[in-house]
Structures are given as C-alpha cells and as structure tokens.
Request: fold
Amino acid sequence: MFETRRVKMTKRLIKDAYIELLERNPSKRLSITDICKVADINRSTFYMHYEDVNQLVREIEDDLLDCIPYPENIAGGLSDSEQFICLLEKTFEYIKDNKKYFNIVFVHFENTGFQKRIAQTILERYKSIAFSNDTLITKYGFVFCINGSVGMIKEWISDNFPISSRSLAQTVLQMCVKATSFKRNN
Reply:
C-alpha cells in the first residue's frame, strides 16, 4: 500500500515515541496513551495507523528485517569468503546504525519470536551463498550457524559493539566454516 510522506512521518513519530519510552523504562507495559503523549498525537491518529501496540511492534520488527542486506548487493569479483564477509559486515553495520531499535526488540525484550524471524530472514537471504549443495545436513549446519550468530549479535549489541563489524563478520565466517565443514574458495 502506498503511504504518503505525511503518513510515513506520523508512523515514524509513533515508532520513535514507543522506542523512547522503552529506553526509559524497558519493564513497563506501554499504553497507547503513553505513546501518543510522547509522539504528540491524538489517540485517533494512532488508531488510523495501528490497531494496537502489538501491530506497532510487528511493524517495527518488519522494518528492521526488510532492510537486512541482500547477497546481490555485494560487489562482484570477490572470492566467496570475501563476499560473505562483506555481506555480514554490511548486516552488522546496519544493526549498529539502528542500535536503539535492535537493542529494544532484540536484546531487552528477549523476543524469541523476533529472534526466530531474524534467523528465518537471514536463512532465506543468505542461503544462496551459504549452501555448497542442498543437503539437509548443510541446511541444519547453516541453521546452527545462524542461531549462534544471533546469540553473538545479541552479546555484541549488549556489550556496545566492542569489536568492529568486520572482525565480527570474520569470526562468524570462521565459526560457520568449522561448524558446517563446507569449503569456500579463498
């Protein structure tokens, strides 16, 4: 559905208000009234865009997942390993650039639904460069790597990004290669 600039701006205000409130008090259950006060909008404006807070949260998650880089956005001429590292580095930079959102929905909430969705999104987007063949064992190895990477990302966010995106990408690749035993071109 096409959204006007005004609708996009209003939704951004609502999302930012929600995240701001959660940053202040992550344990509090937020009401629509709380969100509207911070966003400086009426409740009717909120309801024009969302049925409830759960729909708002789902859209925030969708926005985050929709912007995870795709393999085809990587420059050609690189080895498979270097392409994978570049893709992971872009993904980790995206997470770092959107720290406040990932910190709330990914770390503070311990949102297992979002963790499953991010793992599934990464599996779908990265499988074209990760599977050496389409065997079930390779798939399970990749699922193992994704879930381990999700845990590493959560710690990386929680620790306020103590290592570079590039270093984390290289570590993830090394661990994936060891875990799945699939060979990559160097």
Q: What stands out?
A: The chain is about 75% helix and 0% strand. Confidence is low (pLDDT under 50) at residues 182-186. The radius of gyration is 19 Å.
